[in-house]
Amino acid sequence: MTTETKKETLGFQTEVKQLLHLMIHSLYSHPEIFLRELVSNASDASDKLRYQALHDATLLESDPNLEIRISFDKDAKTVTIADNGIGMNREDVIENLGTIAKSGTAEFLKNMTGDQKKDSQLIGQFGVGFYSSFIVADKVTVETRKAGEKEGVIWESEGTGEFTIEETDKASRGTSITLHLKDEHLDFADGWQLRSIIRKYSDHISLPILMEKQDMPSYDEEGNEKKEEENKAPEWETVNTAKALWTRSRSEIKDEEYKEFYGHISHDHTDPLKWSHNRVEGKLEYTSLLYVPGKAPFDLYNREMDRGLKLYVQRVFIMDKAEEFLPMYLRFIKGVLDSNDLSLNISREILQKDPNVESMKSALTKRVLDMLTKMAKNDEETYKTFWKEFGQVLKEGPAEDMGNKEKIAKLLRFSTSLEGKEEQTVSLDDYIGRMNEDQEKIYYISAESFNAAKSSPHLEVFRKKGIEVLLLSDRVDEWLMSHLFEYDGKKFEDIGRGDLDLGKLESEEDKKAQEEVEKQSEDLVKRIQDVLKEEVESVRVTHRLTDSPACLVVGAQDMGAQMRRIMEAAGQAVPDTKPIFEVNPEHPLIVRLDNEADEDRFAELSRILMDQASLAEGGQLDDPGAYVQRLNKLLLELSGS
Ligand SMILES: Nc1ncnc2c1ncn2[C@@H]1O[C@H](COP(=O)(O)OP(=O)(O)OP(=O)(O)O)[C@@H](O)[C@H]1O
């Protein structure tokens, strides 16, 4: 480690400068949040020390009672938040208070719109942290000494482009942050004001937060305020409840406290949609407090995103982001788990092997699914919000968690041909409840986009018969459907794949009539097949179409078009398969084709129909130029030139 004695001036990382600017301009309407953030950091710093002290008790030095002290000086216009937690050394300070190490920061900053309301919500989700000090302060001084080290450091900045850093002798371990208040925020240098903010935002902090005792002002007989005794040693008192929130009983915790606690552990200041707080006693003993956030984080689809629960063992903080207690498809859940059965020395490696962890994981998974099921049942509007934010991730569930497949399937929501809107609101139970009497299967179609699914020619026969079809167009949908085979005893059927089997929905007469049409069209089918033999697997008469001349069908065992595109985009080899081309002999264009004696024109027209069928399902043409030329030629002929 290098030891520097002189004062040095360093520049903030560009992202910090941007964030500072945004923060000061977007969050000025809630200046008091700085205190919540600094107390939250102080509490984290104490948790870290307590954990490290499990392995090395000397870190506690002669100061084992961890606490946060908040003081103010009206004359000097300062507020100071001091902790005796883990502290920081010079490298830590530069790393933590000069840069933002969070992944996705640049991407996050790109999403800023300039609209203060939206931006402040986004910043809230990103976590405002230490830099929120600059909302109220025009200078911030951080004095800190790391546990177990000798040298202290002073960091100071005016929140513009740079900060200074110098060595100091600091007797006490931990961090003390002094805010030099801006003139318009001098009201924070007031004991009652600070107390009320602490009670509002930080009551759930399990560490004692101390402030100097403050008597109500007393007056003499003439009504003059009595001066306090000079040189009286300050007396400190605890101003918060100072009990870990999850250890308190549910009935005595207010919703507001649950919400504040959520903000503290998740660094997300959008209210959670729901939470579930439980104590389990028996073979395993643990308490869990799980939250469903109100908004998806910006990196939800990055499977490397930070996820997992805050893990405590017997009230001692062990680690953030313990991923082992919930499956990947519930990676959006935030919360705390406090176990009595794990060892205080537990490490990530051991966690992965501990059989108790596996049982807790399955119980917590069930708890989350139950919480969502209840939400879906009792609070449809909130569930709609949940689905909009996290539905895509939940759709990964059936593939990852076979055991809970049916439960997850119950939670899925879809767009359907009957509703015709993009918002996914129809459950499988709704679908089954509306099923036609003779209908045995759950029908779905998957396409590249919602509109492609909605206007797919494959739906025609279903529309005619009044049968609802699920419209799937999310990237994850084909993956989902390749793991979901049936629900409530009803099989799923992709209507764009293989032979269409409508079961009892088709009468004997219908079938006979179809066979008749097939027989009559044998020559036509053969002629088209000769033209398209390179492009298609086979040609056949359709049973799906009523209004369109032709469509493409994927072979029963072949990979769907959407999955194919995902795999191709990921650079994976995909098997070379050809679609089946189905024609509707009753359509005037096909009748016209059948009557075409000129083989060249027959071939041109067949190709156009084939390309159109591909376009209608949202596909891309292999040779769009050739298609346009053919079509133009045809248009010219039609217009008689
Ligand atoms: N009182 C403190 N004692 C020790 N380290 C601290 C203290 N305050 C901040 N830090 C360090 O500085 C880092 C940055 O703090 P900051 O509040 O900006 O972000 P954060 O707490 O990591 O996340 P978020 O931005 O979501 O709040 C922390 O991760 C921590 O390592």
From TrEMBL:
<dbReference type="Pfam" id="PF00183">
    <property type="entry name" value="HSP90"/>
</dbReference>
<dbReference type="InterPro" id="IPR020575">
    <property type="entry name" value="Hsp90_N"/>
</dbReference>
<comment type="function">
    <text>Molecular chaperone. Has ATPase activity.</text>
</comment>
<dbReference type="InterPro" id="IPR037196">
    <property type="entry name" value="HSP90_C"/>
</dbReference>
<comment type="similarity">
    <text>Belongs to the heat shock protein 90 family.</text>
</comment>
<dbReference type="Pfam" id="PF13589">
    <property type="entry name" value="HATPase_c_3"/>
</dbReference>
<feature type="region of interest" description="C">
    <location>
        <begin position="566"/>
        <end position="641"/>
    </location>
</feature>
<keyword id="KW-0963">Cytoplasm</keyword>
<feature type="domain" description="Histidine kinase/HSP90-like ATPase">
    <location>
        <begin position="30"/>
        <end position="185"/>
    </location>
</feature>
<keyword id="KW-0547">Nucleotide-binding</keyword>
<keyword id="KW-0067">ATP-binding</keyword>
<dbReference type="InterPro" id="IPR020568">
    <property type="entry name" value="Ribosomal_Su5_D2-typ_SF"/>
</dbReference>
<dbReference type="InterPro" id="IPR001404">
    <property type="entry name" value="Hsp90_fam"/>
</dbReference>
<dbReference type="InterPro" id="IPR003594">
    <property type="entry name" value="HATPase_dom"/>
</dbReference>
<dbReference type="InterPro" id="IPR036890">
    <property type="entry name" value="HATPase_C_sf"/>
</dbReference>
<keyword id="KW-0143">Chaperone</keyword>
<feature type="region of interest" description="A; substrate-binding">
    <location>
        <begin position="1"/>
        <end position="348"/>
    </location>
</feature>
<protein>
    <recommendedName>
        <fullName>Chaperone protein HtpG</fullName>
    </recommendedName>
</protein>
<keyword id="KW-0346">Stress response</keyword>
<comment type="subunit">
    <text>Homodimer.</text>
</comment>
